[in-house]
Design brief:
Number of strands: 6
CATH topology: Rossmann fold
Structural class: alpha/beta
Radius of gyration: 16 Å
Order of helices and strands: EHEHEHEHHHHHEHEHH
Strand order of the largest sheet: 2-1-3-4-5-6
Number of domains: 1
CATH architecture: 3-Layer(aba) Sandwich
Shape: globular
CATH class: Alpha Beta
Distance between the termini: 24 Å
Strand content: 5-15%
CATH superfamily: Alpha/Beta hydrolase fold, catalytic domain
Largest sheet: 6 strands, parallel
Number of helices: 11
Helix content: 25-40%
Length: 251
């Protein structure tokens, strides 16, 4: 998705999670464009998804982070707010390390999955979501896009029919290498510049798992929303309000 807005200063970089593309951000991007049209906003398709064709058998967390940094540099964005949903958060430590603290104005984690240092996604997920991911990734091949029934259960509770259709229409395959790789995140995120948006009805990354991560990281800026996993689709006004605050917009 191209960069929306034409203003200078801090821009928003939106990173989708597993089974999604950059299209999932469209309701939030639309709301941001309505209320702060000059705010630069870029939603990135990670490698192998959307408009970034790549062999998912080779896609790693590091490759995804590298791709986001390439897009940031190509767009000439100097300082950014990194916004990561679900498994998109796996890329954040490497993006922060590559760009440096000066260029990261803030980080906003949305229904995020960020394992403890050295752990993997499969070490962290709980309940039915873990069983689904483990079963689909056990042979090391790309995970097939989730069935409509599975995706609706994981991502779409509490949505209107048009919101559900937006989510279900952009389902895609996923790299299983990202499920099992250990994540190195210790000491990278600054808790004073990191915020969390926690959907209280999340079926994919359970709220108690998110709260344990929030406590481990020392994050105090937490916005709870009565929503399911894909809050950027179901509650774009709420999420846009959080993002504008961290981008320094007065509106």
């Amino acid at each position: 998705m191209p960069v929306a807005g034409s203003g200078e200063g801090v821009g928003l970089v939106l990173i989708h999670g597993a089974g999604h593309t950059a299209a999932c951000w469209q309701p939030t991007v639309t709301e941001l464009a309505r209320s702060v049209p000059d705010l630069p906003v870029m939603a990135v398709d990670l490698p192998g998804r959307g408009d970034t064709p790549e062999d998912l058998r080779q896609v790693t967390v590091q490759r995804c982070a590298e791709h986001v940094v390439e897009r940031v540099e190509a767009a000439s964005l100097d300082r950014i707010v990194v916004v990561a949903h679900s498994m998109g958060a796996l890329t954040v430590p490497s993006i922060t390390a590559r760009l440096g603290g000066r260029r990261i104005a803030a980080t906003v984690l949305v229904a995020a999955l960020l394992p403890p240092d050295g752990a993997s996604v499969l070490d962290t997920l709980r309940g039915p979501a873990r069983r689904i991911v483990a079963r689909q990734s056990r042979h090391g091949l790309p995970r097939r896009r989730p069935h409509r029934v599975v995706a609706r259960w994981m991502f779409c509770n509490g949505m209107t029919r048009p919101q559900r259709e937006l989510v279900l229409a952009q389902r895609c395959d996923e790299s299983s290498r990202m499920d099992r790789a250990p994540i190195r995140s210790a000491g990278v995120l600054d808790p004073t510049r990191t915020a969390w948006v926690l959907p209280r009805r999340d079926r994919t990354v359970r709220p108690r798992t998110q709260r344990a991560t929030i406590e481990r990281l020392g994050i105090v800026d937490v916005t709870e929303v009565d929503a399911g996993h894909d809050v950027m689709v179901s509650h774009p006004q709420v999420l846009a309000s959080v993002l504008k605050r961290h981008a320094g917009s007065p509106r």
